[in-house]
Amino acid sequence: MPSIVIWPIIGSWQFLLQAVWTTMVLSLLSMTLGFAIGVVVGALRTYSGRAIDLALGFYVDSMRAIPLLVVLVWTFFAFPLVIGYSLNVMTAGVIGLGVHLGAYMAETIRAGLTSVRRGQMWAALALGMSRVQAIRTIILPQALIRMLPALGSLFVFAVKDSAIASVIAVPELLRQTQVVAGNTFRPFELYTAAMLVYFLLCFPVARGVDRIYRRLAHLGSS
Amino acid sequence: MNLDWSVVWDNLPRFWDGALMTVWLSVVTMALAIPGGLVLAFMRLSKVRVVAKSATAFVEFFRATPLILQIYWIYYVLPAYFDVQLSQMTTAIVGLVCNISSFNSETFRAGIVSIRLGQWNAGRAIGMTDRQVMVRIVLPQALMRVLPAFATTWVSLFKDTSLVSIISVADLSYVSLKIRTESFRIFEVLTAMAAIYWMMGYPQAKLVDWLHRRYRVAE
Amino acid sequence: MTAGQTKHRRVSHGSAPILALEHIVKRYGALTALEDVSLNVNRGEVVCLIGPSGSGKSTLLRCANALETLDGGRILFEGREVHAGDPKSARAVRQRMGMVFQNFELFPHLTVLRNITIGPTTVLRLDPAAAEQRARTLLAKVDLSDKATAYPAALSGGQQQRVAIARALAMEPALMLFDEPTSALDPETVGEVLTVMKALADEGTTMVVVTHEMDFARRVGDWIVVFDKGRIIEEGPPKQIFETTTVARTREFLSHLGWHGESTLEAADVAPLDKEDIAR
Description:
The complex is a heterotrimer of chains A (222), B (219) and C (280).
Chain A: H1 7-11, H2 13-47, H3 50-65, H4 68-83, H5 89-115, H6 118-126, H7 131-146, H8 148-162, H9 173-184, H10 187-220
Chain B: H1 6-10, H2 12-44, H3 49-64, H4 67-82, H5 88-114, H6 117-125, H7 130-160, H8 172-183, H9 186-214
Chain C: H1 9-12, E1 19-28, E2 31-41, E3 46-50, H2 57-64, E4 72-77, E5 80-81, H3 87-96, E6 97-100, H4 112-122, H5 128-141, H6 157-169, E7 175-179, H7 187-202, E8 207-210, H8 214-220, E9 223-228, E10 231-236, H9 238-243, H10 248-256, H11 267-279
Parallel strand pairs in C: 3-8, 3-9, 6-7, 7-8
Antiparallel strand pairs in C: 1-2, 1-4, 4-5, 9-10
């Protein structure tokens, strides 16, 4: 077994820490964009007519069919040609990841909304609320609580998928690890360290969400 | 923006080869990852602690880290340190199989565990051994339940194969990106790449939906 | 004043009915849930809808507060026609009607107090302090003041239903609709809910109640309407329905519930309820 040297990691620690930060920012921003898209698309698919459901279904199913790598590359290289301005890598990364994640979010939220009992909508409407008020104050909060485990696993996806942004040179953890590995010729230590960081970011989230869900589940059961 | 789609038509054979490679990688991976997942699931359910714990560690590790990093790690790290030189293709398959087996093991484990205890008891009550119950009663039912989940994993796998392009395996992504750099027709080539994936993936996604509806579990 | 069983609507009320259902037709695909149903509800009256399950009673309530659209006929509430298909008109009607559901349908993610205040604050735009004041008064009225900060999951069925009644009352509706309010309750808790409903009736609240509780209908109802297969087969004061009916189907329905044309209540069962009423 050849020697394992940790110096390359220590020496570039600031650089890599910055990269970890970028990964987190990228994940959170894409989650946020994805969530916003997901709520709108999910709610529209649940509550609007068939035509809208089918049209949005097309978006959702297309994102299931096209790999994230392709979406990111297209967003960074081809999309600017359509809109006429170039995007910086981070923007392209957030948009690509967010739009892709948004489709999965929409499905999760749709499942959550339809799992809330019909009677809850009736009770809200019976108080004189409009449909929008009912969805916003009564249905959506319950749906979100029920979806907590699914949302947690989508977060884990967001973090893992952020690594794919390395192909369009977003300075996140994988990319910067490649850079340092290229300079120091010690890929083993660096890539292993990177693996550990991702593991530490993702694994506790999945467990944590389960624990939080168990405490809050009663708030979502109608 | 003036578009020249001829670059796509001219390179159709290359796109086709790339698409075939994508399909081939998916099929081979799933063929290996289903038994792989089953083995891991049984290891996790094993009464021998060491076996259970190491299988769990393997699965949790592969599920919580990015596939793209796993592929890099296997390709760049193994040869330098463990004297193992894997070809690009082998690396790609090893990486995909380890990753997908881990997800499959979870699917199997959930499926096996979801079969009601009553089924076990019924089997034991007619005198079957635990192994017979597993093989003849529980597993067949579990397989029916897991079919929709596997279909979903397959669709994910199909997309994941695009990541092998980073180690120059000639799948659809690699081929497309190569054509792009050669021709400079960025928009046309990238859109064609997306469109081809869409044409392959969309029907599969709809098929998965159908499977989920058809095999909905009724207790 | 205890609701008189001999009060006849045409005699006591000169004003127009608060709710008038005219030739209502409601279909679900090939199934006709309501066929040419006409019914009036006068102010201050307690109208009880009885009949076999699936005879259309609950559907009628949902049509009344515009939760369902009509396939025929029209509904007049407070003199104006109800258009379920028009969201604004529907909402205006629902604000003036309160509804209590069989499954309570309390909002599980909100505290009891918030369940009661959410209608007034969101819909009536009452300021939060006033809404809370109103809510606490209503909680005291249904005898659940100590549960204000609890979540619905911590309450028993009877307690949840009483909160649901308070929630509907918080909107200060002109008409209260009850859809089998005690059908989902354990027998021990049915009484506490019926007590609250009787108190409301005694205060003069206009109520339409779909129920299987025949004792309640007989003692608290002013007007009984018997449904069967989407039609009204008989209507009249309790005495007529429960004691002197000539309609065979009504008699058959009532006999299946164990009601043989005479009260099965002992005097002792009646007294405790009256004492509580006096105390209020």
